[in-house]
Each structure stands twice: as structure tokens, then as C-alpha cells.
Amino acid sequence: MRAWISQGLMVFDLGVLAYFLxxxxxxxxxxxVAFFALVQHRRRWTSRALEVVMRSPATPAISVIAPxxxxxxxxxxxxRSLLLLNYPQFEVVVVNDGSKDKTIEKMVAAFGLMRxxxxxxxxxxxxxxxxxxxxxxxxxxxVIDKANGGKADAINAGINAxxxxxxxxxxxxxxxxxxxxxxASLPFVENPxxxxxxxxxxxxxxxxVEAGQVTTIDMPTSWLARFxxxxxxxxxxxxxxxxxxxxxxxxxxGAFGLFRRDAVIEVGGFRHDTIGEDMEIxxxxxxxxxxTNRPYRVVFQPDPVCWTEAPETRKILASQRNRWQRGTxxxxxxxxxxxxxxxxxxxGWFAMPYFxxxxxxxxxxxxxxxxxxxxxxxxxxLDVVFAELLFLAAVVFGAMISITSVLLEEMSFRRYPxxxxxxxxxxxxxxxxxxYRQLTTYWRLTGxxxxxxxxxxxxxxxxxxxxxx
Amino acid sequence: MLLSFAEAFRNALLPFIMGGSAVLLLLLALxxxxxxxxxAVEARRxxxxxxxxxxxxxxxxxxxxxxxxxxxxxPVRHRxxxxxxxxxxxxxxxxxxxxxxxxxxxxxxxxxxxxxxxRSRRWWHRSEAALALGLLRDQAAVPVxxxxxxxxxxxxxxxxxxxxxxxxxxxxxxPLLARMNDPVRHERARLVQSLRAFGEGAxxxxxxxxxxxxxxxxxxxxxxxxxxxxxxxxPLLQWAGADDPETRAAAWxxxxxxxxxERAFYHALKGLGDDHAAVRAAAARALARTGRxxxxxxxAGHLDDEWEVAAQSARALIxxxxxxxxxxxARVQQGPGxxxxxxxxxxxxxxxx
Lengths: 469, 353
Prior knowledge:
The structure holds two protein chains of two kinds.
Chain A: H1 2-44, H2 47-55, E1 62-68, H3 75-83, E2 90-97, H4 103-111, E3 113-116, E4 129-135, E5 141-146, H5 150-161, E6 166-170, E7 175-176, H6 180-190, E8 194-203, E9 208-210, E10 213-216, H7 223-245, E11 256-260, H8 261-266, H9 277-291, E12 297-308, H10 314-334, H11 345-360, H12 362-378, H13 384-412, H14 419-431, H15 436-452
Parallel strand pairs in A: 1-2, 1-6, 2-5, 8-12
Antiparallel strand pairs in A: 3-4, 4-5, 6-11, 7-12, 8-11, 9-10
Chain B: H1 2-60, H2 64-73, H3 79-87, H4 96-107, H5 110-117, H6 123-135, H7 142-148, H8 154-167, H9 173-178, H10 185-197, H11 203-212, H12 217-227, H13 233-239, H14 245-258, H15 262-271, H16 277-290, H17 296-300, H18 307-319, H19 321-333, H20 338-351
């Protein structure tokens, strides 16, 4: 009996080990591909080349859509820096999603906004638009005041009001670098079949922000935020660069994404009954364009930078990860038809299964792997060699991957100015694999469980505001 | 069987991990040393700055001995550094500093280098030289700088625009205006900024340009709204009667900042009846600046005009004191419509300020 259990446990453990080896090896491959992609990208898009493109009359105009819900602390500053973006022609559409605080009053006072008639086509259905405000001083600023309907609904209302062919969807508290729009719009200029692009998200905690711009880049002081810096580098520089190269990019972060307006309208806008609306719209674009056999691409651009505030308390981070995980599970369940289906190309045979195994089911496999191995080794049901193997394949190999991502950043963008930062990042790459990563895995597991129990709803994110006290 | 497989597995995994970690560590060490080299170069630069900065500072304060000393001790290879030290204060202060800095730059043989650099093949040399000569207000550089307005590189063009604005030579106004049709908004903004730097002194040159080139009047008026003095009023008023609606609107926008006299006031009331909304809106805005109560009945009539005009009228009325307020209140009483919403909003805001 005992021997049977032991045999079963060994088989299970080898399965978990295979899982870890595969995901980490995949990341190694991602990093290698990303390295070449990044080098090529940087060689190609020097500021000279960028300037030539920007001067061409073909550069598409962009409507930046910033949904705002109870953002009175930061809205004015965020808006001022948005209006200073370096791009030939763009407008900013702020959508006040029924805020309960003074978000709208703050904007009206700060930008001299005046009520204007709501007279434009609204191809996407949204909660009622109560008022439209325009600025007398700045024709490129539009504020929409609408009934509360959630972020996706607010974005849809913004897309309705957008005048230009490209829409840039951001969070109201995102800090875009002045060149971000320019760099994010390049794929559209290069290839008119581009449907969407996303940029890299970096963590603003610890940086100095003046007048809505990051002026000095520094590491966060909170350890929880520091780990997230490495985590983001790994996800964006290794993961998304590769996925984009394979035209299998399934996520464009809600904090900063650029879409073709007609494409988003064609698929019916952002879906408001999901919490993973940023991933869902991308999956739907892939699906629609593959279904109708049209050439298209969805691109990740590594250099348009969007700075965003990361949660610094365990509770908020836990709810964020839980929410992301539920979002991923929901989106996968909506689009199961693409899973493994070669008709959907790299999305069907690679991205969808990858997300199912490593993103959705991952936490289940990882947590059970850790728990079962530890208990079994303790009770003598498994040889210690299995614990060693798990440690090597999950933790040590994981640390190698984290460091690889840090080095990738150092060899490509080198945004952190000091030697100290590089050393700290490398150290964090090692340390995060002893505890932090397991913790996030646990939070994601609660997300999977909540998804299976059909829990809905948003997490909370309290904002500190960027202004110095 | 499985156990021995696991052991074999571990024995294979270990060297891979060790090897991989070694490679990564090596790479990390390499990158760290690369950074350290950079830091060392930076530290060296800082120590040089610490050595030269005091001498150059006293030379810029007019100390002749320091000027001679600076020329003697700063070797040619540190010239770029010296140049940045000479120019640094000019970003902040104007006036006497300029001539002393120019003299010092001449003494350090920097000026000649910059003049040569304006024709350099490397764009960054051209742009740096243009900026430097602009800061020194080197009149001799103006003709070449005007040529650089059509440079192939945007940073050189931007530098030339800035430099010409700083030098303030009137012969640059026409070429600067000619560039105003640039499709890139940032570049236009830069041009306006540069023309603003000419200050009120540019008014007559701008007016002359406008008189000679009727097509550029809208542009000229836009710039006059920043730099124009009272002398611009009469010509602007004439342009406010131009055939081209864009020129009329721009003229009214400029008049709003120049200020209206009695005659202009009555013309502005007439402007409220223009065929083009942009002109009516600009006229309403100009009237707001007069603070004259007798404008309120005229403005009140436009509260249900096109949005732009109605919004400007509402904004204007709230600035015209009790009469304007009464007109707005009357419009609120009249019932729903665009004018109602706007009047309500400005009255509400007025009560909160």
C-alpha cells in the first residue's frame, strides 16, 4: 500500500518537475528571442528614424482615452502631463465614470471646461452620457460625464466620442513618457494591418514625479514593490516581446494600449461583464480577424513607457493578483473555441494552451507540488532527492530566469541609473524566488478558486497621489 | 526505478544550473564593470568642473585676470567642458553676462569653433553650436542660422529657431514666419515661443510683414497676441475686417490681449454678428476683456449660438459684473437649451470662486 502511494507521489512529483522545467525553459527561450528582438528594435528605431516617421503626413491622429473614477487627488496633474505628450495630432478624452468625489469639478475649474451638446454617433452601447465638456483654451481636451458603468463601459463611451482613427486606452493615473504615443504608434505606421499595440509598464514607486513626469528613476523602498519591479521586467521584456514576435500576444495592459478604433468598434467594444477586459478585447480581435481570414498583427512595443503605481501592502496586492487571475480564467473560458485549434494559428496552438497550463492552472500545479512534496518528504513517503529537484527546478532555475530578465533590461534600456540599482535588481531576482513568488502563486490560487466559485467584483486600490506632500 | 530516474535527473540538472548561474554571474560582473567605468568617467568630469568652475565664474563676473588665467590653464582638450561652463549661466540670466561671456568665449577660442561647427557634417555639432551662439547673442551667426531653419535634422532646426529668438535680430522675423506652416505642432509652438522672445520690439517688424504678406496675417496676428503692444491695435482692427475668416478670428484673438479702445469696442460688437462662428467667438472673448457692462445685452443674444460662441459669451458675461450676471440669470429662467446649461454652469462657478 505504502509503496503504491509512494510510486504515485513520485509520478505526480515528476509531473510537477516537468511543469517547472518547461515553464522556466520556455522563459529562457523567450529571453533569448527577446534579446535579439530588442537589439534589432533599438538599432532600427533610433530617434532619427523616429523623427522621419513622425514628420510624415501619414502619421495617424490619436484619441487618448482616460477613464476616471474618484481620481480627484491626481486628475489635474495626470491631465496636464497627458496634454504635453509629444505627438503631432492627438486629443485627450477623459471619461468620468460617475465619480462620487469632485473629479469633474476639479477638471472644470482647472481647464476652464464648458458644457457642450452631446452630438456625435455612439456606435457602442454604454451607460447614459450625461454631459460633455470642452475646453475653450484647448480644443484637444474633451471630458465626458456619464453614469457609473465600470471601466470597460467608460472606455467604450470614450471610444464613441473619439474623433481620431487610433484610440489609446490608459488608466487615469498612468504616467506616460512624452515619447510614448510616438513609439507606440510606429507599428501602425509600419503596417496598416496592425490592430493594437501595448507598451511596457514600469513601477513608479520610489521615483520622483514632478508635474506629472518621472524626473528621477529610483527603486521603491518597499520590498513588496521592489519584487514587482523584477516581476514586471520578466513579464514584459521576456514574455511579451516573445509573444509579440510570434503574433500570439494575448494581453495588452489596461494601463496603456493603443487600438485601431474601427477594429474595436467592429468587435463590439470592451466587454463590461468581465474583469479581464484588457485581455478579452485582444483575444476577441485575434479571434475575429482569424475567423474572417484577414491579415493582422497585435504588437508589443518595448520602449513606450507607462509608469504606474504598484500596490505596497500585502492585502491590496493579494486582491490585485486574485483579480488578474480571475480575469485570465474568465477570458480563457470565453474563448475556449480557440484552444488548440490550428485555425487560430499561433494563438490557437501556442498562446491559449500556454495560458491555460501556465497561467490559469499554474498556481494549482505549483502549490500542490510544493505542499505534497514537503509533506511526503517529511513523512518519508518520498526520497529527499525529489525535494532537491523541486528546489532546483522551481526556485534556483526561477532565480536564473529573473536575473536573465534583469540583464536583458541592462543590455537594452538601462533605465535604472545607478550601479546600486543593477546590483539590487540582480539580488531581488534571486530573493524573489524565496517566498515572494510562492506568495503570489498562492494569491493566484485563491483567484482560481474564486473563479471556480464564480465570484465577481473589483479589488480596491487606494491611491496616494503623486504630488509631494 | 523512478527514484533512480529522479537521481539521474538531478545529476543532469545540477551542472546545467551551475553552468547557467556561472554564465549569468559573469555577465553581471561584466555589466557592473561597464557601469563602473562610466561612473569613473563621470567622476573625472566632475573633478574637472570643480577645478575650472571658480575661474570661469570670476571671469564671467568681469575679472580680467581670471579671464587671462582661464585662457592659460584650460587645455584645448577640455574645451567642450569649458564651453558648457561658460554657457551654463546664460540659460538663467541675461544682460551684462552676455557680453562678458561672449568675450570669454572669444578668448578661449570657442566662438570660432562654433562658427565652424555650424557647417559641420555632424548634426549634433550643428545643433550645439547654434544653441551656443544663440546664448551668446552672436549677431554674426544670424545669416547661417537662418539657413539652418531648413536643416534636415529636427534638433538642428529647433536649435536654430531658439537661437534666432534669443539673438532677436529683426532680419530673422520673416524667415521664422515663413516656417510657421510647419505641419508639426511642437515645431510651431517652438516658433511662436521664439518670436515671443523678440518681445514688443518685434511688433513693427511683424506688422510690416503682415502688411506685405496678407496671406500670413492670421499667423502674424496669433504671434501679436503674445508680443503685440498698443501700436498693433489699429492694423489689427483693419485685419479684423479682412475677407478671410481665419484672419478675422486671429485678429480678434490678438485684439483681446492687446486690449480694445472705444473704436475697437464697437467693431467687436459688430464682430459678434459675423458669418463665421470662430470670428464671433473671438469677438466675444475680446469683449470679455473690456469689462464693459454695455456689452452684456449683445453677448446675451449669443448664449444659444453655436457652442464655441455661446461658451465664450457665457464666460464673457460672468466677467461683466452684475449686468452680465443678470443676463445669465435671465437666460436660466427662460428654460432649457444650450444657453441654459452654460449660464447655469458659469453662475455656479462664479458663486464658488
